[in-house]
Amino acid sequence: MTEARTAPLEARSCRQEKVASTALAHDYLTQRGGAERVVLAMHRALPDAPIHTSLYHATTTFPEFAAADIRVSALDRIGPIRRNHRLALPLLAPVVSSMRVDADVVVCSSSGWAHGVRTEGRKVVYCHAPARWLYQRDAYLAQSGSGTATALRVLDPYLRRWDRRAAATADHYIANSSRTRDLVREAYGIDAELLFPPHGIDTEGPRSPVEGVEAGFVLCVSRLLAYKNVDAVVGAMERRPDDRLVVVGAGPDAERLRGLAPANVTFLTGIDDDELRWLYASARLLVAASYEDFGLTPIEAAAFGVPAAVLDFGGYHDTVRDGETGVYFPSPDAAAISAAIDRLDADPPPPAVVRAHAETFSPGRFRADLERILAS
Predict the structure, then answer these.
(1) What is the pLDDT of residue 138?
(2) Which residues 6+ apart lie within 8 Å of 58 measured at CB?
(3) How far, in Å, CA of 369 to CA of 371, rounded?
């Protein structure tokens, strides 16, 4: 269990001014992904709110969390689980159910677990996706151990009941994309409000060149998991021997991908934000081939005026305007990706248009909309 302290949030409406204690909850802070960037944006909006989470591994998530008030579950004491959260998947339902958050308003950043925390206050759920290990299991667990996958299949009826009960405890549901809104309605029968996440990267911050990388490359920023389809992006480079692909990310698929990659593919891990800013600003285009419910990286690239070639799927329909800020390709295969790169190279959109699109996903707009929701 965790114990929460109260923290002031000044929330204004047209009728009255009130002060409420607030807290944040997130599934686990063990990686550097889009969901974790959203939690950082929430933390900036609510800097005094503690963050409740099942697991926290400082060396594998964003360093900015070190300054936050992080409250962890008892599960965090188990080192192997803290370093590999997938080992904990069958255990997280009872663990999260035991986490009590004492605050007037709890904002749950959830992709399957955080919406199950207990509270007497109001619960606002920001949903990145209904639990992928329940509703998109085969893709999500492709690199997990057989024991974890088997345990989840055995526990499936219980976990689905728990998940739906947890969703029903929310006073307000928010979806991060049009696709997620549809999935929430399908899974829970809830009509969620739509609030796009912010791109979360400071374009004016310092930039540090990455040694051995020259400007003008194709960029792919992704966790290295099967459903991200990075292998298809890597495969496209076999058709483009004079091109250069830079892949930024880590994950259980890393060794396999390195074995597949031709010589014109560079893999980078442990990149800090100064280096990431330089990579985005120095790329000529981004490629994203994953089955994403939102898909943050095209917006991060767009903030630097860089267009994206993306899979014609899901959240990319919100984040990329086909023919205006990037192009779609129909399937995650090497030929389609290479053809999309050729289309962008032949007719790149003006950087100013791309940057203007990214402004609709600015941190300032996200914060204002989040504060409006909490005030209501």
Answers:
(1) 65
(2) 65, 66
(3) 5
For residue 323, the Cα-to-chain-centroid distance in whole angstroms is 25
Does the pLDDT of residue 239 top 80, yes or no? yes
Task: Report the pLDDT value the prediction gives residue 200, as an integer from 0 to 100.
Answer: 79
Angle at 16 (CA atoms; ends 10, 17), nearest 5 degrees: 20
pLDDT of residue 3: 40
pTM: 0.83
Beta strands 51-53 and 70-72, pairing class: parallel
Where residue 33 falls among pLDDT bands split at 50, 70, 90? confident
Sign of torsion, CA 61 43 27 132? Answer: negative
pLDDT in tens, 304-329: 999 999 999 999 999 999 999 999 99
Residue whose C-alpha is closest to residue 298's, from 256, 328, 265, 342: 328
Rounded to an integer, what distance in angstroms lies between the CA atom of residue 191 and that of residue 357? 26
What is the torsion angle, in degrees rounded to the nearest 10, for the CA atoms of residue 305, residue 310, residue 312 and residue 317?
-30
Closest CA to 140 of 297, 319, 293: 293
Report the alpha-carbon distance of residue 14 to residue 290 in Å, rounded. Answer: 42
* List of domains in the chain: 8-198+363-375 (3.40.50), 218-359 (3.40.50.2000)
- Spatial separation of the C-alpha atoms in residues 371 and 46, rounded to whole Å: 9
Rounded CA-CA distance 306/311 in Å is: 17
Q: Are 238 and 334 in contact (CB under 8 A)?
A: yes
